[in-house]
């Protein structure tokens, strides 16, 4: 059966700090800018190609544009989370 080990019991106290997240040091602002710029350019190209059309093709293109903008937001959010962990 389980029996306690002899000797002093550990005293509860503050836990050691977690090691810093090394991924924060890999956040390259230029790479983030490049990724976001590329996504925004693609979204702008879609917006320009759709113009004022309101047909099903235009709606599909706008959905693609929304997806690209969400990806750009994700890139920025991920970068901020990595920096916050540092």
The value of Rg in angstroms is 25 Å
Summed up, the helix count is: 2
- Record field, number of beta strands: 0
> What are the segments in which pLDDT stays under 50 over at least 5 consecutive residues?
none
The secondary structure category is mainly alpha
Strand content: under 5%
How far apart the termini lie comes to 44 Å
Outline the structure in words:
- The protein is 60% helix and 0% strand.
- It contains two helices and no strands.
- With 86 residues, it is mostly helical.
- It is elongated, with a radius of gyration of 25 Å.
- The two termini are 44 Å apart.
List keywords for this structure.
86 residues, mainly alpha, single chain, elongated
Write a compact overview of the structure shown.
The chain has two helices and no strands. It is mostly helical and 86 residues long. The mean pLDDT is 78.
